[in-house]
Amino acid sequence: MTSQVRGGQLARLLGQWHALPGRRRSPDYAALAAAVRGLIADGRLPLGVRLPAERELAEALRISRTTVTAAYRELRESGHLTSRRGAGSWTTLPGGHRVASSGLWTPQDDLDMIDLGIAALAAPPELIPATRAATEDLPRYLGSAGYHPTGIIELREAIARSYADRGLPTSPEQIMVTNGTQHALDLVLRLALAPGGSVLVESPTYPNALAALAARRARIATHGLAVDAAWDADLLLASIRQSRPKLAYLIPDFQNPTGHLMPVELRERLVGAAHAAGTDLVIDESFVDLPLDGTPVPPPAATFDRHSRVITIGGLSKPYWGGLRIGWVRASAPQVQRLAAARIGVDMSSPVLDQLVAVHLLAEASTIVAARRAQLAHQRDALLAALAERLPQWRVTVPRGGVTLWVELDGPISSALARAAEEVGVRLAPGPRFGLDGTLERFLRLPFTLPAADLIEAVQRIAAVRYDLDRAGRPQWREPSVIA
Ligand SMILES: Cc1ncc(COP(=O)(O)O)c(C=O)c1O
Q: Can you give the residue ranges of the HTH gntR-type domain (predicted)?
């Protein structure tokens, strides 16, 4: 990470800071401070980075030093800058809040904030009885040390059965239990990708996957998905054939954030192309249990795998509860052994009690998941109706599963909108979070995981600030009027 940003670099990042939407008639110093806050909020200016000295920034921006001094003062007052004599000034967040490495905000305890940054449901009612039942089971494990690097056998069996039920015969030796799907991805990357290795991902994609890839210093290429058109089969297969990435990370089932579902033919062709190119496929099935409206889900990509090219990852966070931290890897038995060996250097194994809770939840999968689907369909429809009423100019394709809408906005306003929405108590994950290079400003991910009333209230607040952006966005520079 950069530890210091030079005047010229910051000036480039700030771009047209003096003409940002929402500026209205604020003085230059306030506009400059707002623009720096925006860069921090968007994750474009990392936390803990030393900003240029006032004089250097004033020169780079061709403005007076007093303006920069006043802007820095305002940033200090709002908690976005910390200065120490002799050490300079570096970026921070108010109240010591932190931004995740993906740039997504970590949840705060602000009860009035409607948090649309997180695409996950609250726990189902069955969690408490499942936890009670798990504590009853615990004594069976207390006589051993409790380390199970691939997971306790009964959970591995239950997960293996769930693949068999989907038409993919799987033995418990092919399953490794992890602390969530993110952990599964990180472990798989450690095993399958040397630092600096090449990876193909969808754009947009899941931001924390990008964070995991960044940790491996992966060289990332993207395959673009549109709002209404999912994977372009020819382009996707051609990019695998031509660039032969070491690994491709894809989310074929109700992709996060677009909600797209990959058709069965493409799954089959993808596995064939990956094998021919020597590419490993990491298939993230986080949302596979959440088809809506009775949508049939095609068989897993691994069904077409004859050469151990496909590593599948999944978990309980989306259908059940993120706080449980249960995920897994499905791979060949030797790959699982190698993953378990890699894991010893990381976290040894997953908590036994949580795994027992997972066993009980999976035993009731059909009831729990049916209720989750009904809840999600209802919330999705409430969100769609609120958008159609309040923001009819936005374009949405109705997702047939998953937990998110990928909305095409009426302009490249996503980050500005997220900043404005924060002011009225709605946290948003703007489009650029889901891409690599600051693109996707015309898109916004809206999860439908909160109760319908919260979603409707959020859309009302968003619609109000969307309207303000327009008013503030009127041309800042008028043609001089002719006086005759
Ligand atoms: C595609 C995808 N993969 C992985 C994760 C992380 O899941 P877990 O909580 O199981 O680590 C998420 C969570 O949002 C996700 O959307």
A: 26-94
Model pLDDT for residues 204-242, shown as the tens digit of each residue: 999 999 999 999 999 999 998 877 778 999 999 999 999
Of 182, 255, 287, best ligand 1 pocket probe by most atoms within 8 Å of the beta carbon: 182
Question: How many whole angstroms separate alpha carbon 484 and alpha carbon 481?
Answer: 10
What CA–CA distance (Å, rounded) separates 200 from 187?
18
Among protein residues, the one whose CA lies closest to atom 12 of ligand 1: 286
Determine if the peptide bond prior to 204 is cis (ω within 30°).
Answer: yes
What range does the domain containing 140 cover? 127-364
Query: Which CATH number belongs to the domain containing residue 12 in this structure?
Result: 1.10.10.10
d(CA 331, CA 311): 5
Same domain, 303 and 156: yes
- Both 391 and 360 in one domain: the answer is no
Span from the CA of 16 to the centroid of ligand 1 (angstroms): 35
Cα-to-centroid distance, 180 and ligand 1 (Å)? 7
Rg of the chain taking only CA atoms, in angstroms: 24
Establish if 59 belongs to a structural domain: yes
**Ligand 1 atom closest to the CA of 182, numbered from 1:** 11
Answer yes or no: do 353 and 372 share one domain: no
Asked whether residue 102 is domain-assigned, the answer is no
184 C-alpha vs ligand 1 centroid, how far in Å?
10
Pocket lined around ligand 1, Cβ cut-off 6 Å: 119, 180-182, 206, 251, 256, 284, 286, 315, 317, 322, 327
CATH number of the domain that 437 lies in? 3.90.1150.10
pLDDT digit string, tens, across residues 395-448: 999 999 999 999 999 999 999 999 999 989 999 999 999 998 778 999 999 999
Residues 301 and 165 in one domain: yes
Determine which helix (DSSP H) or strand (DSSP E) holds 173, and give its type and residue range: none
- pLDDT digits 0-9 by tens, 261-270: 999 999 999 9
State both tokens at 409.
């906005």
Nearest atom in ligand 1 to the alpha carbon of residue 251 is 1
Is 412 a member of any domain? yes
Pocket perturbation via mutation, ligand 1, pick of 104, 115, 187, 206 by most ligand atoms within 8 A of CB: 206
Domain count of the chain?
Answer: 3
pLDDT in tens, 128-141: 999 999 999 999 99
d(CA 18, CA 102) in angstroms, rounded, equals 28
Residue of 256, 288, 433 to mutate, ligand 1, most atoms within 8 A of C-beta: 256
92 part of a folded domain: yes
The helix or strand, by DSSP H or E, that contains position 28, with its residue range, turns out to be helix 28-41
Q: Are residues 65 and 191 in the same domain?
A: no
